[in-house]
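Hi all, long-time lurker, first post. I run a small reading group and we've been trying to get comfortable going from sequence to structure in the token notation. Rather than ask abstract questions, I figured I'd post a concrete chain and ask someone more experienced to write out its structure so we can walk through it together at our next meeting. Sequence below, copied exactly:
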Amino acid sequence: MDEIVYHDRYRNELCVEKVYGDKALRWTYGTWGGKLALAAMVKRAWFSRWYGWRMDQPKTREKIRPFIAEYGLDASEFARRPDEFANFNEFFFRKLNPSARPIDPDPSTIVFPADGRHLCVPDLSRCEGLFVKGQMFDLATLLDDPELTRRYAEGSLLLSRLCPVDYHRFHFPAAGRPGPARLINGPLYSVNPIALRQNIQILATNKRVITSLETETIGKVLLLEIGATCVGGIRQTYRQGDTVSKGDEKGYFRFGGSSTIVIFEPGRVEFDDDLQQHSADQRELYARMGDSMGRII
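-- Answer (accepted) --
Happy to help. Here is the structure in token form:
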């Protein structure tokens, strides 16, 4: 299988992703034996719950410092020292110091909701594909709501993919008032491009949570968190009905790679040039939570 290449906004260069669990992932999605295991076990919720439980055990503390070293994480960003985490899962959904992720202060911008590798779709009615040209997931399946499907059929979308090495809290991309989080159950396939290049519909059928954010500047924004293999859970930390500011925390993922999706009404936002350019080439852009992803039209 091909390497996963993305563009790093800060280094302004193409990078090859160092995939956590690469051999297991390629075996699962690239061999007959792996695909049998996927159907029988890996995609099941109990498998991810079991793996999440494993990451809650005190002995997993031993994994933290080697993980930081192998993936080059900056521990000075953490709100707690590495030896203060009780287990690997606590480290995984760690908080950061506020100074580590400043929020773009320009009132005309919207910001990335999470650290990760991002793709945008300026017009969902004209999408030419995400990871592979010509392949796009079904919006009606994703939203599971005919009215929302009609309303956002020509809207714009941001997909943010969080790897296990990333900061795993997700935030509000704009100020507003969030409603309740609606759970749609589904399987838990991997959201790594290795899997998505084979079946992009994974994004629309995996377990997911949808929240509407009412804003004064860009209408109603849909915020989705997508579960994935070995995600121990999607936790919401915001309070329904409270007014939130741009960049406020919404929640976090427990162990595993995951994705978020933000969907805007038609004609409300214009994505940043680098995000649009790389998305047009089906190449993800690495950027951090709080940085600009686009502007209000």
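A couple of things your group might point at:
The radius of gyration is 18 Å.
Residues 1-297 form one domain.
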